[in-house]
Please model this.
Amino acid sequence: MAKKSKKQQQPGGTPATVALTAAGVTYTVHSYEHDPAHPSYGEEAAEAMGVSPDRVFKTLVADVDGTLTVAVVPVAGQLDLKALAAAVGGKRAAMADPTLAERTTGYVRGGISPLGQRKTLPTVLDESASSHPTICVSAGRRGLEVELAPEDLAKLTGAVLAPVSRA
Model:
């Protein structure tokens, strides 16, 4: 039996790359072999691509006052939940239930992209992204990243830029 090519497995790419292509945004896809034993999806991506962890951003889903909200922060840092709540005019934030996050975004944990989600969620991009010409975020599955200008990411997701990461 012949192996399926990546094109057959992912016709047209992931929802994230389809959204980028439809928007006419310039981006680069980086693929690497995902190691299920690695303790951190984001750090694994940075190491595999040879990119500084300050330029690789993870996509986290939080519950802010009952509303699922996306936070895009550097893998080198942690999400500041109080700052996230403040950035969207909320009072309290907590990490969302992983199953709910997967069901709502249409992506699996470790592969949640801020782009091409099943349901559009309020999004906050850590302001540190603006200090880089390009950043990398998940392209919609483990082992696949997309590199693009932070301004393009903010525009496509409707993201607010705010300081929501801490070391």
Remarks:
- Strands lie at 28-31, 57-64, 67-74, 78-79, 93-95, 123-126, 135-141, 144-148, 160-162, 165-166.
- The first strand starts at residue 28 and ends at 31.
